[in-house]
Amino acid sequence: SFSSNPCAYMVPESIRSGMPLFYLPSNNTPPILCSSDPSCPQFAQFWRPVCLIDPSVWHKWLHTYRLCIVLEHDVPLPRFLHTASQNGRYQTVQSRHASATLYNFLKDWTSFVLVENHTYLKLVSSEESDKTPSWFYIIRVISKPTLAVIHLAFLGGTPGKLRYQVAEKLKAKISALKIPLRPSAKESLARVFIDGRPVDSKVRSEVPCCMLLQKPLEKILIRYERMPSEFGTVVFPDGTQPHTAAKPLRPTSSLVTTLSRYLHHRRWVWTASAQNCDLGHAAVARILATLTEMRLHEGFKFAHSSTGIINMVLEVQMKCCDEDMDHTCKNCRPSIIQYVLFPLRVTSAGKNNSSDDEGTDDAEGEPNDLESTLELIAECWIEPQHGVV
Description:
Blueprint: H1 6-9, H2 13-16, E1 22-23, E2 32-33, H3 40-52, E3 62-71, H4 96-109, E4 112-115, E5 119-124, E6 135-144, E7 147-155, H5 160-175, E8 178-180, H6 185-189, E9 192-194, E10 197-199, E11 206-208, E12 210-213, H7 217-220, H8 254-259, E13 264-271, H9 281-297, E14 301-306, E15 309-317, E16 334-341, E17 345-348, E18 354-355, E19 372-382
Antiparallel strand pairs: 1-2, 3-7, 3-12, 4-5, 5-6, 6-7, 8-11, 9-10, 13-19, 14-15, 15-16, 16-19, 17-18, 17-19
InterPro entries: SZT2
């Protein structure tokens, strides 16, 4: 067993100092030992299986918990977030600063690092004076900017009170993490004085490192990996379509189709150009950036971005809709709101198909710019819950 095996809890000095025990190659091969310390092989032999077990099956042997967090995005936002660069590619929203803060905290919180930025382990003793640990718990971080899921697992037999205390304390610590608010270029030029001394604008304020969610967002997150080919015709959740459809539609993502059975959703399509007034790509991109800023000011956070399509989420606490009852009803649960914003879409008059965000110029012989139309497209997906906002 763990507590009776000194090779399992005698942490080598190199590992105790912060070096990860393993690193995972990118080709899905078994974890490789990092340290050349002579005592590491025996220690690694005990902990190697922990790196290989998928969190989805941890519950068979361990007491499991999970935390879903949305990391604070890096600023400034990428230049080519809403519009494509010259090579036709979009940039994605990153959370490198918040991720580094989270990983540094977990490194300090735990006893040693199994895999850098991936798996951490904490040894726990029944008494503070006891040098021999009785239990341990594992922290596994599965992150894809800017959404992260933290899996927490305790050794079987760990007291329930201890598990609860650790889980609640971990939540509080992660929620309290801060990162400096980096100003924009314009703000960095302004000088602030306190007691007659200039203060660096980079340390004026801090923002939370992440937003802790109560709901499992990773299971209901709307992920568009590419621009849909059709926006004008409704595709029903069971895969059918109206008899009036002009042509068969391409199959939609199975994930989106499944979620459409559960989440209330609506799509808006606005025409951004007319025969006598063309806004132009730059103006439309500015509108998309403004919509993004509005959602950020409302409390939304970036959860996913790909090929110019961004998903922003907000968790709201529902209130009781009965006027005779206290609005803070215990039966009311939080609800997840997802706001999806698509990049500029160009459609051609008289054609059912449209060029997507990776599209090319109009075919030769059709130079008339009036035949193309610019469209702005947004979606809202809401988790149905009892109560009012």
